[in-house]
Amino acid sequence: MGRALWYMFAFAAALSLACGGRRETAAPAGNAAAKPAAKQAGGTQASAPATGETTVGSMMPAYSAKSLDGKPFDLAGEHGQVVLLNLWATWCAPCRFEIPQLQKMSDQYAGRGFKVIGVSLDDTGADGVRAFVNEHKMTYPIVLDSEGKLANMLQTSSIPTTVLIDRKGKIVWRQLGPIEEGDPELKAALEKALTEKV
User: Fold this and answer.
1) Residue 10's domain spans which residues?
2) How does residue 53 score in pLDDT terms, banded at 50, 70 and 90?
3) Is residue 29 part of a domain?
4) From its phi and psi, is residue 155 left (phi > 0), alpha (psi between -120 and 50) or beta?
5) Which of 2, 128, 132, 197 could disulfide-link to 124, CB 3.0 to 4.6 Å?
6) Does the residue 132 lie in any domain?
7) DSSP-derived secondary structure letter, 109
8) What is the dihedral of CA 112, 113, 114, 115, to 10 degrees?
9) Residue 198's pLDDT band (cuts 50, 70, 90)
10) What's the domain count of the chain?
11) Would you call 116 helix, strand, or coil by DSSP?
């Protein structure tokens, strides 16, 4: 998808989200469905929604793509790990804002079976993404998804969009908009996911 079309969607997203992000966390015990909570955060439009269930509490559907190093990536290969799947693009300002927090989380929790995986929506090719990753000292794995398969799967029209997936493959936290440092809801969901066994 061309950058001009992305910008057109960005304007529509800004209007629809009123420059606010939205977060979902696991529903309290006894509550059948998680209710999204409003949170102020900026985001950029990504892609039109598709059908399928990817809300908090649902199992993450199968997803595969090509990694930045050219190898195939299959999310199913991460089963048993806690995964923070982050949909982003090099040209997205809110995405750039959250990179230091994502890197910090990757460094801090990697030894406990946690992995941050960035999914780039850039359509400029691997070389441009690689240069950006090197410039911003991003050491967590990067997957290339110029077709927006993950955005469609997550039914999101905003980037960044991030989901936390537990060791069994269940979505336990979801954020539309950038992750803020010290986010208490993310930290609680992450700690809970890390302590649970497969």
Assistant:
1) 3-24+35-195
2) confident
3) no
4) left
5) 128
6) yes
7) H
8) 140
9) confident
10) 1
11) strand
